[in-house]
Amino acid sequence: MNFNYHIKKNDETPDILESFRAMGQIEPVVIFKKNGGEFLLDGKKRFDYFGNPEALIFSFIDEAMIFLFQKERKTEIEALQILAILKNECISFEKSFSIFEKFYQNISLRDFNKIYNINFTPQIKSVLVELKIGFNEIKIYSILSAENIESLFTLFSKLKLNGNHRKDFFSLLDEISIRDSINFNHIFTSEKWIEILFSDRGLSDKISQLKQFLYEIRWPKLTELTSELQQLRKKIPIVKRGILDFPIDRESTKSSITITFDSFNEFSEQLQQLEKLKNSKEFEALLGKIATRFKNL
Fold it and tell me: Closest Cα partner for 20 from 57, 54, 56, 45?
């Protein structure tokens, strides 16, 4: 019996063996027969427990999949495994979509086309089940090369990334690879990446450090400027707060801008607020005068 086509579930039922002992085999296992070989599609636990279980055998893979869908609604993770089997058996895009649209009205033809074009390797299928990746997420990876998506999913599994982290890593890596025309493995085999990945840091710290490394690659000038600001801030040991009052004429409303130096995160947020006023010529002139005054002190 070949188990390569077995559809793995992402929700385990711990008391299933008790059910087998008490009630015996209720449903047949589902087998696809091809070229003299038998491929187990559904019911591995029943197969393992009963040894020679009652079986329902199909000679056509699409008929077997329609039966499985009709028997019970499949999760999106299980449905993606079914799609991988259909592709492996050279079932056309049109026929595959006709099967899916009967049971998943929320998936459009365009989105299904994106998903269908992904090469579902054993590694990718394994990560789909492990991290419970569904339709809406898997479709965004369709823009990647087969090599890049395989590398990305290996990273997802290694770091046990949740959905938000996966989105962040994908966005950064994709932007870097497009801009620099490099594949993900070029980054994953870099000395600094390997040093962080295999360090003694905790998992959360590793994720933060790897993201920071990608930020440095993606925005090198901004990273350099941030580093300079951090160093300059450290050189202000006594004055931790500065208040700029403007304008100073009697007819205008008085406003204040406060800049603190004790927290770099807070300092950065305040600079971002100032950045919103950068297109104001009057404000730029005011800052210019302030800078000149400090320079001449």
Answer: 45
SS3 169: helix
**Which residue matches tokens 């569904």?**
134
* Mean pLDDT over each residue of the chain, to the nearest integer: 84
Which residue type sits at 272? Q
Question: Quick one: DSSP state of residue 90?
Answer: T
C-beta of residue 33 within 8 angstroms of C-beta of residue 89:
no
Quickly tell me which residue has 């091809």 as its tokens: 34
pLDDT tops 90 at residue 166 = yes
Q: Which is more confident, 296 or 58?
A: 58
Which residue blocks in the chain are alpha helix, DSSP H? 16-23, 44-50, 61-71, 76-88, 93-103, 109-116, 122-131, 135-138, 146-159, 163-180, 184-188, 191-197, 203-218, 220-234, 264-275, 281-295
SS3 call for 257: strand
**Residues with Cβ within 8 Å of residue 59, at least 6 apart in sequence:** 32, 33, 34
Close Cβ partners of 23 (under 8 Å, ≥ 6 residues apart): none
- Separation of alpha carbons 15 and 21, rounded Å: 10
pLDDT exceeds cutoff 60 at 297: no
Whether pLDDT at 107 is above 50 = yes
* Residue 191 DSSP SS3: helix
List beta partners, residue 33: 38
Cα 294 to Cα 250, 289, 291, 297: the distances in Å are: 24, 9, 5, 5
Of 160, 210, 219, 164, which is closest to residue 187 (Cα–Cα)? Answer: 210
Task: For residues 238-259, give the mean pLDDT.
Answer: 56
DSSP alpha helix (H) spans, 40-116: 44-50, 61-71, 76-88, 93-103, 109-116
Q: Are 155 and 172 in contact (CB under 8 A)?
A: no
pTM of the predicted protein model: 0.71
Ordered by start, the domain boundaries in the chain are 1-142, 144-218, 237-295
